[in-house]
Amino acid sequence: MSSSGGGTPGNNEYGRKPFKRSKSHFADRITADGRDGWPVEANRYRLVVSRACPWASRALISRRLLGLEDALSLAIADPIQDDRSWRFTLEPDGLDPVLTIRFLSEAYEKREPGYSGGVSVPAVVDVPSGKLATNDYQQITLDLATEWTALHRPGAPDLYPQAHRDEIDEVMTGVYEDVNNGVYRAGFAVGQEEYRAACAGVFRRLDQLTPRLEQQRYLVGDTITEADIRLFTTLVRFDAVYHGHFKCNIRKLSEMPTLWAYTRDLFQTPGFGDTVDFDHIKRHYYQVHAGINPSRIVPLGPDLSGWLVPHHRQELGGRPFGDGTPPKPVRADEEVPLPGRP
Fold first, then answer.
1. Which listed residue (53, 137, 242, 262) is catalytic?
2. What share of the chain is helix, strand, coil (3-state, %, to 5)?
3. Is residue 184 annotated as part of the catalytic site, yes or no?
4. What pLDDT sits at residue 82?
5. How do residues 104-136 score in pLDDT, each as one tens digit?
6. Catalytic annotation, pick one of 108, 184, 262, 285
């Protein structure tokens, strides 16, 4: 997710010009063979995310499921940006303790002096040089699953199994176009027809996914895959921000029984709900997108207690982690309180 800052003219333009998601400007890959100049190496890189951002949340979940916490350090940006991009004001001195920078844009500038494009998360920064290595949100998690295997924890699940990749890719393509990106096209639409087409597309795709998820616990195969991660990060935000803020209000997630149970199932699975911060999510969307919420008032709802209600999805079978095991308990310095729990 890119930004031009909270309360700045850039954010005031949301809803006033056609929405088009930018391609990742820095699309290098971090691979086992280092073919792009960025070899996989423990403790060399720092993953920068916002807990508010669905694209960054993919990387948070993957990192946790794969047990990469000790190999790939984590920086959490403030959910509210200013005109200098994602900032590290959650830290006591407003300075990331590892990268020693105040704004993610500084790593972009080190990579490309004079860079004036968008600054987005997730971003992986090379700690020794302080340079951005990649901001390719579509590829980062796939590489964590397939290129970082030497650093995976024992029992890590296979999130992109070779035998199912064609089907996973097909499902993810539709989910990206109509759901992940569709809610943004609806929310930032500048005309009624543009909004209508985007909003209708969101629910058309969700309706298409429902019969699949009535028959099986996960989107592809009988285990959690990258496809589930990508759908989850949009669905978990649906009632909190997309239903109201982005006007995707034909139905709430909680009014779609199969998808609601599916999302609760994942939320209650270690590695998913324990990475979600609803406070960050709501404050970011409602306070940063000043063009569509000029008052910047953050609503009190929705009630979050339902996230911990039993889902009964285990009756469909499935093995969340395949032949692997759940991730270890979340580290204390990365813990997020679950709704309904102290």
1. 53
2. 40, 10, 50
3. yes
4. 81
5. 999 999 999 999 899 999 999 999 999 999 999
6. 184
